[in-house]
Each structure stands twice: as structure tokens, then as C-alpha cells.
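Suppose a colleague, Dr. K., hands you the sequence of a protein chain of 198 amino acids and asks what its three-dimensional shape might be. Before reaching for any lab equipment, you can write down a predicted structure in C-alpha cell form. Begin with the sequence itself:
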Amino acid sequence: MKVLVFGGTGTIGKAIMSELDHHELVSVGKTRGDLQVDITDDASVTGLFEKIGRVDAIVSATGHIHFGPLTETTAEQFSLGLLNKVLGQVRLALIGQRYLNEGGSITLTSGICTHEPIAQGSNATTANAAIDAFVLAAATELKHGQRINAVSPSIVTESSAAYGPFFPGFETVDAAKVAKAYRRSVDGVQTGRSYRIW
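The predicted structure, expressed as C-alpha cells, is then:
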């Protein structure tokens, strides 16, 4: 199967690439990877799919959010998570479905903050919850046996040095364990699921 992995050079992305190495993989990033794309731009995403052609699976492990105290957060800062992590990934699904083979899958990334808010993480909670809700709804409308799921990980062990202070008392999960949920989505049969890896 031909699988596009957006964010394939990141911490989780590398683990996904390793877990799915039995497929034909294409790593896509903003500045790194086999191909580059700007997920906030329709023309960039469409151009990428036109270049690649038909695919069997689309995996997204990308999307930026804003961390900061709610009392100091501006609408412009808050829009980062909405335009990048939410709409960026939704854009991949909306455009990508037209290039997805029959029975193909789309896998997006949300996160534990949907259900476990953290200090300075209102943008993360909002963005992650939006992805989970989109997947739930989109699964009811996709055609041709196409499936869509999300992976909702806790903080990954490999990133705990950088992000650990935002998640006091949270159990970390290894990126390799998180990657298995992406394999479940790509190689499995379920749709409309948000796999919680906590």
C-alpha cells in the first residue's frame, strides 16, 4: 500500500514510519521529508496530491498549537491551533479523500488534552477536541469504503524533556507504542474512532 505520512520526520512520525515500513511510505513535511507541503494552504496540499496521485492511506502526525496563559492569549495566537492543527489536518482529509483509493484510510492526530486539560493548554484542548469531533462526523459521510480515525496520545516519552513541565503527573508513552495505533488505523477495519494511547 502507498501511504503518505505527514510529519514523518517528527518524533511520532519517525516511529510511524518504522511501524508501517511494510508499506510504500512517502514522508511529507513543511521543510523536511521526501516531499514538502504547507498544510495551511489549499493550493500547496492540492499540488502535492496531484504530484503523488492515488494513495491507499493518509496519515497526519503534524499540526502546531499555542501554549500560554488564557488571560494573556490573543485571538491571533489562539488561531494558530485552529488554522494549523485543526484546519490543516482537516484540509488533508477534505482534499485527500479525492485521491484516496477505495477502502483507503485517513488517520489524524488529536491528543490527551481533549479529555485532560492542562494549564496554558486551552488551545490544545480546543484543537484536539475539534479533530476528534471531525473524525466522528466525517466517518459517517466518507464514500467508497474509505475510513477515518484519530490517534489521541499522551505526552510521548521522547518529548518529555521539552513538554513534561506542561503535563505534571501524566504518564508518558513511548513513541513506538503510539505508532501501533496508527498501524491499527491504517491496516485495520475500524472507522470514526479516536484511539486513546494514555
